[in-house]
From TrEMBL:
Protein name as catalogued: 5-methyltetrahydropteroyltriglutamate--homocysteine methyltransferase
Pathway listed: Amino-acid biosynthesis; L-methionine biosynthesis via de novo pathway; L-methionine from L-homocysteine (MetE route): step 1/1
Cofactor descriptive note: Binds 1 zinc ion per subunit.
Taxonomic superkingdom: Bacteria
Binding site residues for 5-methyltetrahydropteroyltri-L-glutamate: R16, E17, L18, K19, K111, R520, C521, W566, E610
Amino acid sequence: MALSASLGFPRMGARRELKRAIEAYWGKSISREALFAQTADLRKTRWLLQRDSGVDLIPSNDFSLYDHVLDTAVMVGAIPARFGWTGGDVDLDTYFAMARGGQVPAMEMTKWFDTNYHYIVPEFTSDQAFQLTSTKPLDEFREAQALGIQTVPVILGPITFLLLGKTKGADFNPLDLLPKLLPVYETLLQQLAEAGAKWVQLDEPCLALDRTEEELAIYQEVYTRLVNHTVLSISLTTYFAGLGNHLTAALNLPVSALHLDLVRAPEQVEQLLSLPQWPQDKYLSLGVIDGRNVWKNDLNYSLALLQRVAAWGAASDRIIVSPSCSLLHVPWDLDTEKALDAEVKDWLAFAKQKLAEMEILKTAVNDGVENVQTALDDNRAAVERRRTSTRIHNRLVNERLAGLTEDAYTRTSPFAARKSVQQARLQLKPFPTTTIGSFPQTKEVRKARADFRSGAQTKEQYEAFLRSKTEECVRLQESLGLDVLVHGEFERTDMVEYFGEQMDGFIFTKNGWVQSYGTRCVKPPIIYGDVSRPESMTVTWSSYAQSLSKRPMKGMLTGPVTILQWSFVRDDQPRETTCRQIALAIRDEVVDLEAAGIPIIQIDEPALREGLPLHRGEWEAYLKWAVDCFKLAASGVQDETQIHTHMCYAEFNDIMPAIQSMDADVISIETSRSDMELLDAFQQFSYQNDIGPGVYDIHSPRVPTVDEMVFLLEKTVDRLDPSQLWVNPDCGLKTRNEEETVKALEAMVEAANIARARY
Ligand code: GLN
Ligand code: ZN
């Protein structure tokens, strides 16, 4: 019989119960015991839901109070010395301190592959010791067992765990630690087997990335060893990318099951079918349901694929039907979306609905199509309704895209010529000062917005409030002596949502939360159709702000790649096409801002780098269209309109040619935390355009001193020509309070004045 597996389920609960429980614990309003009781309820709900949906391989230990990579670090005793751990069980407060900091700095956090989920980065020293310090996988297995549910413990595989970490002190290959780490995994597997587990799922997403021959040999060695040490059946999961030319190496691993992501890398099916025979005794877990997106599966298509693979191997009993990856990355339950547009809702499936899809597919494989004919027919009809919906297709958008010529992607004159006409218009001092856009989103601002949404404030009242905040912000910037002003972004909750709400082709859910990090969730917009902009989106606010001051006002937009990257994107056309449509909408806005007399327009692209494909071989193609989209958005204006862009957290070394070809007049970047070292890339590349390296870290409440910023400016001048430089904070100020902001900006303006006198 074919089996089904869910690989992992969302943790938060249908109403983000986990967030509430943990935050209550942090706020000391519930006890440790209460937290445990509430999370046990949630785990139970998740297991029952999966059992009742017919899932055969139900995961345990996919749950976490913060992050599964942190759980793994804690489990193997990789607890950095600064947390003062002396052995034994790691208590809950130490665990949270590792994630969030306390007396000592937290561990670093970074994005989990190309998702918007962030994991805690393990830290390894060259004399790193490991020991099994936690019974979490065992406890959860038993907890489910007590409910009469046999689960598959999910453990982050040892190789991926090490590869995701960073080395501290000495520079060494983290894989050198394997001989010390593996005994811990062996003990764990043994304990799980003794407790009655049959299967264990070892997640090895790193196997699907670019790997050297040597690393592949390590995989072979490690999994041979683990398999020899355990009676458990090991299911090894890869996801987010295809195995490419190491598919055969992966199939040769002596594990019982191998999971393939067939949504991201459907070509793996042909690769499989070209093999001489079914990999001996192995289960193949075929990830046909998209674990990264919210669309209803085309079940007839998936079934045909499953049947082809089964027929090739004469092996329908060796198939596991599964999502492409853990369902962690999709929202919990579509049924809770009572207010969602019914037509679009019919096209969607969240985690719970995906379990039902799996069950239909599994039944069709095992018992024959006739047993699920109605479900398959209904699904075919829904897929067809979506495909032919007039809501999706906008002829004008596509005609416009098709009609674009090369000149839509380039500014009229080269940078040097633009720079002089812009300077003639703007008359900026050297080292011009500015900010990245948002000003503090205080309690007052959030309350006004909540009141407006709940109806407690009228639109007129709310807008009057926003105008007064904007005016206050403009006056503040004038009195601080900033050169290029912003309106403060008080009208925006979120830099993607604000635009998505005003464009056609987007829809928003009420409960479509996905975990971003810890208790923090995001609710990505869903792009379901051709994107266009019926009316201007920001002109009113920017013009109002400009009307208050003689100083140049900078209009503030989110770039097409960032809007794409932070949304659930339609899967019926290439992401690139959707991105170009968004770029056209943003272009229209840029042109409208220019026409309204706004002399400077910033198009934020903080997510440009995170969109890079996991395989390096695909980088070039991605960067080509991503940069094209930025240029399409930016190039509709005259030479004298200055285009800025902003990027955060970026490592620029390997993408400098792309950054240069964006040809923004000014780019502001986050550099202060790296002591301006990030600028080396710009120096080595001889970056031509202007640049505003952030001179202080807005992520910290600490007010920077003038000296510190002068010091950073000196480092900047060492690397770049003073005539290229702008002075600004690292990122938007929305998370800071007003007092910190005023002090920090005062000091920043003073630092700029010192630089002006010096250079
Ligand atoms: N303009 C945005 C702001 O200031 C930019 C935020 C970002 O880059 N993440 O908030
Ligand atoms: Zn930023």
